[in-house]
Amino acid sequence: MPRPRPQPHPHPQLGGPAAAPAPAPAAAPAAAPAAAAIDDLNDLDVAPAWFQQYVQQQQQHNAQQLDAQHQQVLQSLQGLRDDLLPFRVAAARAHNRMAPHGAALMGVPSTAANAPNLGAGQVPNGFPRTESGLHRLTGVQVDPLLASYGLDTGGSVPVRRNRLAQHVGVALRLM
Fold this sequence. Notes:
This protein is mainly alpha-helical. It has a domain at 49-168. Helices cover 51% and strands 0% of the residues. It has 5 helices and no strands. It has helices at 31-43, 49-98, 131-135, 139-148, 157-168. The model has no long low-confidence stretch (mean pLDDT 83). Residues 1-27 are annotated as: Disordered.
């Protein structure tokens, strides 16, 4: 005896006949003008003048802000350098005081108050490399160094050398 065929279930998701598709919603009446405006903008080869002007103003404003921030960073950095200068001077003098004979000296940076011809924080040109080099400086060599540190350039050459040695932390020599 043949088996009867199962009947489809009346619900469409359970195997029943498919329901008629719902009609598509009608397009909103405002969508057509908006789409037309977008199409018009897409057809432009060049942005409108007002938009170009706006972009240019924004770029100028952004550039000015970046310049101002850059200046603030530079000022902060200079402030840090100024704050650290006394510590750099003290560290160089301490190094020179403890350096073994013949060891390299650490250049002592000048300070703004005592170096009118040299930038603050710079080691003067001609700074001797070693203690013995310092004590061999001639009068022509020692005077610009003393002036760079704002020290007196009077006296004999050995007195001037010792004045420089004391300023940079090197042990004094008896004359």
